[in-house]
Amino acid sequence: MNIIEVKNVSFSYNEIMILDNINFNIKEGETFGIVGNSGCGKSTLALLLLKLLKLKEGTILFENNDIKLIKKKNDIKNFYRNVQIVFQDPYSSLDSKKTVGYLIEEPLVIHKNYSKNKRNKKVDNIMNLVGLDKKYKDNYPHQLSGGLRQRLAIAIALVLNPKFVVLDECVSALDISIQAGILNLLNDLKLKLNLTFLFISHDLNVVGYICDRIGVMNKGKIIEIQETEKLFENPKDDFTKKFLNNDYYEL
Ligand SMILES: Nc1ncnc2c1ncn2[C@@H]1O[C@H](COP(=O)(O)OP(=O)(O)OP(=O)(O)O)[C@@H](O)[C@H]1O
Ligand SMILES: [Mg+2]
What we know:
Distance between the termini: 37 Å
Bound molecules: adenosine-5'-triphosphate, magnesium ion
CATH topology: Rossmann fold
CATH architecture: 3-Layer(aba) Sandwich
């Protein structure tokens, strides 16, 4: 079953076309990748999927529901319980005055369905799952290393048990050695927690490592979608071929 369907989505800022007729589906349990150069429109697409930007042209379905029609307070709350995003740099998106423990607990406080005791248990459980030692609970985000901060951002995104998580350049700011640890963690978490991922990156190696299928984007268009192995073995589009050869910066 498709958890996400993107149909004929276009988007402009000040009459400049940023996304041009985007179409793809994401199956339940899949890690779908979007790869493309800086500025090609990847984050804009992510923001539209999360209802953080207003969709004007085209349709996005989440579990067969048109996300444009999700308007009631309770429906929106429910949407953000199920759909989450992890950004590249949690440093700028995390409130530096709140402790690690509270940042993870906060979504549970906002959703009000949990007693203090249950919240504590959930925080401990998710910290354990993402490999963030309990000793960091009273620390502040800036006291963590980049890799641990990204584990924190993942914990915050997962604490409400979402179904679908968008990871936008979530390892791009990290050293290669740390990247692998986070990618393996994401793979583990996906299986343990029955998640579906949209994994966005400009780095083909990273996307190739973690994704089941990949959509290649160039200048606001998806130019090719293939299963990962097939994309690497038999890229169809000239841009993809150049991208694979690492000389895409000439384009
Ligand atoms: N708020 C905005 N107002 C006007 N133009 C914008 C705005 N945000 C993004 N853009 C433009 O939209 C285009 C796509 O940006 P977007 O951030 O989606 O690209 P991206 O593929 O995520 O790039 P990166 O790999 O650098 O993260 C760029 O040309 C950018 O300058
Ligand atoms: Mg981006």
